[in-house]
Write a structure and sequence with these properties.
Number of helices: 8
Structural class: alpha/beta
Radius of gyration: 18 Å
Strand content: 25-35%
Distance between the termini: 31 Å
Largest sheet: 6 strands, mixed
CATH class of one domain: Alpha Beta
Number of strands: 12
Shape: globular
Strand order of the largest sheet: 6-9-10-3-11-12
Oligomer: single chain
Length: 246
């Protein structure tokens, strides 16, 4: 870890939907330059927790602190404005638009004084970013629909990297990819660590978790079972924590 101060602190997070308890008493610190994997079976509460951190859901109770200051996200835009970016499984890319328009989607650069789109400026900035991150695409002017699944995932991660100042949340970033494309996306995730971002990754692949993460946080039926450093645990212990079977 590059600093002793967490970028994001979650304290006693509790979330209910009507009478259903989705998350109860969850606490976690996310540090710059460090990767935490969030694991658990389907329905464990992983996606709900990501939506709380990203401002989609408000916690029923508990506290979120960013750089030590308590924050309350009113929506996803307020979380993004404070430097939190999410890469969802569906990527949220515009298939008919070029890469550079996707990287600046909703945050387009314009030219003064008439407010016309600065397409060349966005293209240059996007090309520099994908080159820096080693996202292997023909060019920043390529149309999203012409790219492979791994290339699209790379663009989604590049977009999050460009706008994130504190934290990147990755929801199953390689679930639909083959071996070679998975390896390239994992290299991208490692590059986020070098940019001093805090990273939270949801993954069903424990092999991937142990390749990428510094710590593993286990959820089971909305409860936080525990947190382990990957260097001090193994897959058998994590599976036992996920299933409750010893």
């Amino acid at each position: 870890m590059t600093t002793s101060e967490p970028a994001l602190m979650l304290r006693n997070i509790h979330k209910t939907f009507g009478g259903l308890v989705a998350i109860q008493d969850f606490s976690l610190d996310l540090f710059p330059g460090s990767v935490v994997a969030l694991v658990g079976d389907n329905g464990a509460g992983k996606s709900t927790l990501v939506k709380i951190i990203s401002g989609v859901h408000r916690p029923t109770s508990g506290e979120i602190r960013l750089d030590g200051k308590t924050v309350k996200f009113t929506d996803a835009s307020s979380a993004r404005s404070l430097g939190i970016e999410v890469v969802y499984q569906d990527l949220a890319l515009a298939d008919e638009q070029p890469v550079y328009m996707n990287l600046f989607l909703g945050r387009e650069l314009t030219k003064k004084p008439f407010g016309l789109l600065d397409k060349e400026g966005m293209r240059r900035a996007s090309q520099a970013l994908v080159d820096d991150l080693n996202v292997r695409i023909p060019s920043a002017a390529s149309t999203i629909r012409d790219l492979s699944g791994g290339q699209r995932q790379g663009i989604a991660i590049a977009r999050a990297t460009h706008w994130a100042r504190k934290l990147v949340l990755l929801d199953e970033p390689t679930a639909a990819l083959g071996v070679a494309e998975t390896a390239r996306v994992e290299d991208l995730v490692r590059s986020l660590r070098k940019r001093d971002l805090a990273i939270l990754i949801i993954s069903h692949s424990l092999d991937q978790v142990f390749r990428l993460a510094d710590r593993v946080c286990v959820l089971r039926r909305g409860e936080q079972v525990g947190i382990r450093e990957t260097r001090h645990t193994d897959q058998n212990e994590i599976i036992s924590m996920i299933t409750g079977v010893r």
